[in-house]
Amino acid sequence: FHFRKAYISFMFRSYDDAKEHVLKFFACRENAWANLMANHINHALYTGLISYWVARKSRDGQKWYDRGNECKMTLKRWAESSQWTFVNKWYLLEAEESFTNNDFEAAKSFYKQAITFAKLHKFVHEEALACELAAYFYLELGEREQTVEHFMLAHEKYLEWGALGKCDSLLKFVEFMKKLWHEGAMS
User: Fold this and answer.
1) With the CA atoms of 178, 180, 182 and 187 taken in that order, what torsion angle do they form, in degrees rounded to the nearest 10?
2) Are the C-beta atoms of residues 25 and 56 closer than 8 Å to each other?
């Protein structure tokens, strides 16, 4: 339940809700029965992504960074056993970790690899996610052209996947962002 709520909050960029529900998920995970779920790849991927996001925005960033690293190492082990299925996910967490560490060149490379391998391995939804997260990364860097390009690629892939609500949300955000740029309210 809490993982699903954290996942939805993350996908729609609701920071406070994502943080609240992933904290509840981590608390639940301490139970022996829930430890089996922690190995599930989607949990490792999305709790890792949320953890790095929270690490970049909160005062207790180190705790969140450590959680992100734990999830990244889980995915690394999975990627070592099956590159086809897991390498794009691991690269995405590497990108987010690099972003968190302000290692922007490494982040660019890892985002590109995450997108490339998701596309090559036909994980359309994960290609969309990698494009979207790369767009937020470029937005933080102030690289407008790359930002819009990656948001539009994400939109295309979410549309291909059938996530129409997500497509609508992204388009509204891009239009809002362009308006702010035009008004000079956003660098």
Assistant:
1) -100
2) no
